[in-house]
Amino acid sequence: MFIDRVTLEIKAGKGGDGAISFLRLKYMEHGGPDGGGGGRGGSVYFQASPSETTLYAFKYKKKISAEDGEKGGARDRYGKSAEDILISVPIGTLIYDAKTGSLLADLIEVHKPVLIAKGGRGGRGNATFKSSVNRAPRIAQNGDPGEKLSIRLELKLLADNLSTRVSVVV
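^ thats the sequence. predicted structure below, dont judge the formating
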């Protein structure tokens, strides 16, 4: 079955939250703030691949979402950043915003990733807010949300797609 048009919901990952923590050691009476920042959320990339010929893989998978970044920890430990998602589609795939109809990308170059949804930035922990005036800050930032959008994938003409792989011998 040949599928040449499909609509998907894309969601990038949220950044991890910063931590509120204070250093506590056995022989140190007043430890300072040591909360770490959160990790970056995963982004969603699309790339053209010569091994793909149709959009059949997206017939039943309508939602694609990246993972969220991890939260920060005590002792200035930063949260782990999430992995990015790389989705392979056929050469000549057009990516449109489903709501506005504007063209986001034209994938004609092989194995060149294009960013479609950017992941959120991680929040800062309370160790980054310390200063000479505020020595014990009890605040931290939350992570930023990732981009969320609805896209439409369309293949160009089948003859254009197959002409890149078929050679004519005279």
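The CA atoms of residues 71 and 134 lie 23 Å apart.
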